[in-house]
Amino acid sequence: IVSFVQLMDIFLLVAVLYIFTVAMYELFIGELELPKWLVIHNFDELKTILSNLIILIGAVSFLKYFLERNDPASTLLYGLAFGIVAYVLVLYRSHGHDDVPSEPH
User: Fold this and answer.
1) Whole-angstrom distance, CA of residue 90 vs CA of residue 55
2) Residue ranges per domain, the chain?
3) If DSSP codes are grouped into helix, strand and coil, which group holds residue 58?
4) How far apart are CA 25 and CA 99, in angstroms?
């Protein structure tokens, strides 16, 4: 089971790198024919997708840590640390700027 979790972790990391690369190409170079869920129009959309994947990678990493360790105190601290990071990412994502900045007068 641990090797499957490690494989999921690697797959998610590759997904993050792929999405980041495609988004940078779309934002700065040109349009690509992509599935609708992968089309990125601005940095807020990229931030949302990447923060979701980072939270998922953290959850998989915690699962791997949970399966490999027997020390309840360190597992609890690891889980709390992951929870805090996930909470901060959700807060950061929810306070994004959806408006287009206005022109200076």
Assistant:
1) 9
2) 2-94
3) helix
4) 23
Q: Give per-residue pLDDT as tens, 11-28.
A: 999 999 999 999 999 889
Residues in the chain: 105
Query: Which tens digits make up the pLDDT trace of 40-59?
Result: 888 888 888 888 899 999 99
Classify 26 as helix, strand or coil. helix
How far is the C-alpha of 16 from the C-alpha of 86, rounded, in Å?
A: 16
Token pair for residue 50?
């990447």
Closest-CA residue to 20 (of 97, 98, 28, 90): 28
Whether the predicted model's global pTM rises above the 0.90 cut: no
| Identity of residue 39 | V
